[in-house]
Amino acid sequence: MNSTHGNPTHGNPTHGNSQHVNAAHAHSGHVPEKPSVLITGTSSDSHTWNLIFLQLMLEEMGHSVANLGPTPPDDLVVREALAHRPTLIVVSSVNGHGFNDGLRLIKAIRAEEALADTTVVIGGKLSTDGLRNVGYTRQLTAAGYDAVFENGELGPFRALVSRLPHRAVS
Questions:
Q1: Could you tell me the end-to-end alpha-carbon distance of the chain, in angstroms, rounded to an integer?
Q2: 67 vs 1: which has the higher pLDDT
Q3: CA atoms within 13 A of residue 30's CA, in its CB half-sphere
């Protein structure tokens, strides 16, 4: 289900307008500040529920969020990160290809000098074998991720997020 590569807006309205703007702001004419968090799936992961959950949780914690949705090409993630300059980039995987996709993505992000100090984390199902793999965590952090969260590690993720500065939607 990677058909979104040819048409990035097909089936995902957030690709064309990556910054989430709620109805109250749309009616008032107020445009929220640039997002403090950029959420993205991996290029091969078509799941959306994880991204929506993370967006709602982060907004509840006071962060403004841009959600790129599922299956974004790596270059789109990098372009949006450069455009928004978020405090945090969250990469989420459900399909078990998070390690391979995430490794390639972090190399593209860290290749941009302007994103060198941006906190970038990855979490979810990183492999298809269903096992926790310390080797994957080591490789992902060595490649440039600031933290790696396995399935269900919301407590440590929330703790990391709570320590970051944020630009809340007013």
A1: 37
A2: 67
A3: 9
